[in-house]
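SEQUENCE-TO-STRUCTURE ENTRY
===========================
What this section holds: a protein sequence and its matching fold, both as plain text.
Tokens: labelled as protein backbone structure tokens, with as many entries as the chain has residues.
Question of interest: how does this chain fold, as expressed in backbone structure tokens?
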Amino acid sequence: MMTTPFWESTPLDSMTEEQWESLCDGCGKCCLHKLMDEDTDEVYYTNVACSWLNSETCSCKDYANRFQSGEECLKLTRDKISEFNWLPETCSYRVLAEGKPLPAWHPLITGDKKAMHDAGESVKDSVVYEIDVVDWEDHVLNHPNRS
């Protein structure tokens, strides 16, 4: 008998901490610096990564201490779900908060990150670091509401 996966049967605000943390696909997109238009509040993504991001693994170099790192790492919490619009459209937290299913490449579905990397849904080996940036606008990748 098949059981329904927890992310399909448990509301985000009722998940255990372990379930909540496991939703993260580990793509590294949230570790990219963003620019906000002061007039419109629109968010623009760049390819400039947090200095703690390992671009090969798409993981934080010191995840346990990320909030003390001096970077502007934000903790994604259930009480701020309504504020997740700055997250990439593929982010599991945002996808589920919007009532959509996890994508087929998600590690909870496939069992590892390979399908995500193969689908081009991670920042693997595609970032620069702030020290290398002269003009931030040259590093804008996309607008979150455009395809």
In short: The mean pLDDT is 86. Helices lie at 6-9, 17-22, 92-97, 107-110, 114-118.
